Amino acid sequence: MSPTPNLPTAAATPATSRPSAQPVQTPRGHGQFPGPKIQIHRTIKYESDRVAGFGRDVMKVPGCEQLEWCIQCGTCSGVCPLSIYMDHTPRQVMALTRADFKHEVLHSHTIWLCASCYACAVECPQEIRITDIMYELKQRAIVEGVYPKNFPIPVLAHEFNKMVRKYGRITELALVIRLFVRTSWLAALGNWRLGIDLLRTGRFSLAPEKIRNRADIARMLDAVDHTKGANS
Questions:
Q1: 54 and 126 share one domain
Q2: Do residues 159 and 139 share a domain?
Q3: Which domain covers residue 170, as residue numbers?
Q4: Residue 22, strand partner residues
């Protein structure tokens, strides 16, 4: 019986160093570790990175109270159609939020990739409203101005809200132009034929469309918008 191979261990690091990850390599194809050589990155969490009370504050928001019930089963990550594109899976976001790792959660792209399909909420054995928690985290990221500035989803939400506040409704052409200018104007050039066809058939309006009593709309939005004053 062949002895179990020794895995290489990471070198000891001084107490003052703060590595973001420790790569651990598996040996290639011998003993009980067959297959190709892979590299695993293990991110280290530090107590000093926590923002005490962050998870508790999130759980005070209506619809987010059940975060405390999470058993980390991973069902949400398994059913999420976009989890393969996320830097943190929904399960990890729930754990990081509850553990008060505010910076990592609010800077994550995961909350912006959530498509609100509610598959996670439907399948969750604890009946946690995961989608509502994602919405709350998005709002907190906007308030603190830490959302990805060139990421299409938050840019679209910001420009949509700004246009409704100003005109009372949206004008599709102006909204699309603003989106492409702030994210990828080269992508807009690739769709110029489609734009011309839409203009020719009257599906796009060059002039912004407005409604009457726009000040009333702005006043109503201000009354419920706790993100007012966030960085744009």
A1: yes
A2: no
A3: 152-223
A4: 42
Q: Work out the angle at residue 224's Cα, subtended by the Cα atoms of residues 173 and 93, and round it to the nearest 5 degrees.
A: 80
pLDDT in tens, 145-203: 887 777 788 888 888 888 888 888 888 888 888 888 888 777 777 777 887 887 788 77
Tell me the Ramachandran region of residue 108: left when phi exceeds 0, alpha when psi lies from -120 to 50, beta otherwise. beta
106 and 72 share one domain: yes
In DSSP terms, 21 is beta-bridged to 43
- Long-range own/partner contacts, residues 163-166 (CB < 8 A, 24 or more apart): 163/208, 164/217, 164/221, 165/217, 165/218, 165/221, 166/214, 166/218
The answer to the question of residue 166 being in a domain is yes
Residues 31-63: tens digit of each pLDDT:
454 445 545 455 677 888 889 999 999 999 998
The last residue of one of the domains, among 91, 114, 143, is 143
